[in-house]
Amino acid sequence: MNRDQIEPTWLPLHDLAVDLARQAGQIQRSRYETALDIRTKSAPIDLVTEVDRACEALIIEGIRQQRPHDAILAEEGGGDDRPEAEWRWVIDPLDGTTNFAHGFPRFCVSIGLEHHQQTAIGVIYDPLLDELFQTVRGAGAWLGTRQLRVSEEQEIGRALVATGFAYDVHRSASDNLEEFGRVLKATRGLRRDGSAALDLCYVASGRLDAYWEMKLNAWDVAAGNLMVAEAGGRVSATDGGPAPRDGSQVVASNGALHEGILDLVRAPQ
Questions:
Q1: How many CB atoms sit inside 10 A of residue 83's CB?
Q2: Are residues 184 and 104 in the same domain?
């Protein structure tokens, strides 16, 4: 990343996020494919492990030591989300917990920083591949020293797309299955890897051409949405408007395919 393009007062926050993401990733790498204490939260498929909690505790403690006045929104509830704070950390300590619990190698740490309610910094770290995705508003998106750009694909039929399913998929009529079917039949390929943050990074890097999902949370998308935008892509809600900060809707693409993806994931009129 070109540090000269970053607002100087933001550099310490960026560097802290990178350091904490790497430290949490080291915990995940050391515990991968070991015996875990696996518990459920909102549904039988909504899992949490002691590794989620350990990573969150590490990240929050690191923030509080250096940034005691910042707000923290973290998936496992360990933060202090204060609306009056200038900076807000939005943390998914282990995105892809179900994958991690099963030894499926698709998971990461995701840290987004909002400045006055607008995401300014994003760091996503895949500890198994040792891939550090990072972005700062106005300074682009990067994987290591490589600046990321979305794909140039123009045809839906040649697109590789990803999605996911909400934790209430077993009991909700709004289950993404009809949308899945429409996109599957219209594109070259459709993937469901189980990590929203990595899916967004893959759109930013051109590995995927588009991604959509519903019923996520802020910590799933805070860093990744900025990653796509800074790589030249487009992120929106399903109606084409701004993507909600709470993650309840996200459609991300290389831009050229966006309207076509929206047509496929919108409910038929």
A1: 7
A2: no
Q: How far apart are CA 196 and CA 162, in angstroms?
A: 9
> With 0-12 CB in 10 A as exposed, 13-18 as middle and 19+ as buried, what is 221?
buried
From 126, 147, 168, give the residue that closes a domain: 147
Task: Dump the DSSP string for 185-196.
Answer: HHSSEEE--S-H
Spatial separation of the C-alpha atoms in residues 168 and 154, rounded to whole Å: 34
| Residues 179-228: tens digit of each pLDDT | 999 999 999 999 999 999 999 999 999 999 999 999 999 999 999 999 99
Same domain? For 129 and 9 the reply is yes
Q: Which residue blocks in the chain are alpha helix, DSSP H?
A: 11-31, 50-66, 97-102, 177-186, 196-205, 218-230, 258-265
Distances (CA, A) of 172 to 13, 117, 268: 40, 31, 18
